[in-house]
Write a structure and sequence with these properties.
Elements (H helix, E strand, L loop, with lengths): L1 E5 L3 H9 L6 E6 L4 E3 L12 H11 L7 H5 L5 E4 L11 H10 L3 E4 L3 H5 L1 H9 L5 E2 L10 H8 L4 E7 L2 H13 L3 H11 L7 H4 L2 H18 L15 E2 L7 H9 L2 E9 L4 E9 L10 E8 L4 E7 L3 H14 L2
Length: 328
């Protein structure tokens, strides 16, 4: 498959770097201000040089000399939307995806915004297109949460819950293990690069909530006989509580009772909730460090657990490229 990659952050660069290993060719790459598009003037399109793109981005801060619009207009089979997540109107990611669909091309998203904030609009665009969308990478990085729910069939899934943010989990794990306070561990996480300089998206529960909103939309739309009957979820529909106010004393008291605290997100076809919860210290949901876990409750197959790395360039790129493979 020929890929146009929009977004040249850690995920986008990893997709460019790994695409050939998965049997695909990158024919265009764009960041926010520049692009590089393979020359197809001779009737052939041999793709861009992945190493040159990644190196130029690292050294010069740009990917090429073309305009980002040229990448959207390139001759590709699949658009990879890997720009940063934005809320509300989910732009510019939403327009990137709909542009691909209007051209009857496929789109694979790593950007959570369009599927969390404008899922119904995306489904309408898909209905009018010969293209499809996939978005495994928006929930849990390398963990195949979305595809597992789809394989079971959403109508047979009653709930999906889990630890869905590595930064928050790292902080809670360190607080519990070392008896340290939130501010101390947050500073440590920032020094290690586990937390951003502004950690609000992670520690306030927004990132986990967006992932749960996406899962709720998959459950709702997947179980509906008619998409018009499905309930569409956005971040505004989620009940969200972060970890800033979790005191070290709560973790110490929990440990005395054989329990610990984790930021747990839960999605059903009716509700989305994210909040710190007490879980058994040696239980399935008590994953440590930056690990994530997704727990799927089913009507006939019982409870399924999938854990792994929920973030990272190569990890998330593997989910993107797995989706590309599903579109072949």
């Amino acid at each position: 498959m020929r890929l146009a990659v929009i977004g040249a952050g850690a995920v986008g660069r990893s997709v460019v770097d790994l695409a050939a290993e998965y049997g695909h060719e990158v024919v265009a790459v764009a960041d926010s201000s520049t692009a590089v598009v393979a020359d197809g003037s001779d009737g052939r399109n041999d793709g861009v040089d992945p190493e040159a793109v990644v190196t130029r981005k690292a050294e010069a801060g740009i990917v090429g000399d073309d305009d980002p619009a040229d990448a959207l207009a390139a001759d590709y089979d699949v658009l990879v939307e890997a720009t940063p997540t934005t809320l509300d109107d989910a732009e510019p990611g939403f327009s990137h995806v709909t542009t691909a669909l209007e051209r009857d091309r496929h789109a694979v998203l790593a950007n959570k915004g369009p599927v969390a904030e404008r899922f119904g609009d995306l489904q309408a665009a898909v209905a009018d297109s010969a293209g499809e969308i996939r978005f495994e990478a928006t929930v849990g990085g390398a963990i195949p949460a979305v595809s597992t729910v789809e394989d079971i069939e959403p109508g047979h899934v009653t709930a999906v819950r889990g630890v869905l943010n590595g930064t928050a989990n790292f902080i809670l794990t360190r607080m519990a293990a070392e008896g340290l306070g939130y501010d101390h561990v947050l500073a440590e996480a920032q020094d290690l690069g586990v937390a951003e300089a502004d950690p609000s998206f992670d520690v306030d529960g927004t990132d986990a909530a967006l992932k749960c909103v996406i899962l709720a939309n998959v459950l709702s739309f997947g179980a509906a006989d008619d998409p018009a009957d499905a309930r569409e979820f956005t971040l505004d529909d989620a009940s969200v509580e972060g970890i800033r106010d979790v005191p070290g004393s709560a973790l110490r008291l929990a440990a005395e009772d054989g329990r610990t605290v984790r930021l747990i997100g839960e999605a059903t076809g009716e509700t989305v909730r994210v909040a710190p919860r007490l879980v058994p210290e040696n239980g399935t949901l008590a994953v440590s460090g930056t690990q994530n876990i997704v727990q799927i409750e089913t009507t006939h197959a019982g409870r399924l657990n999938i854990s792994g790395r929920g973030a990272g360039g190569p990890e998330t790129a593997s989910a993107v490229l797995g989706d590309v493979g599903r579109l072949e």
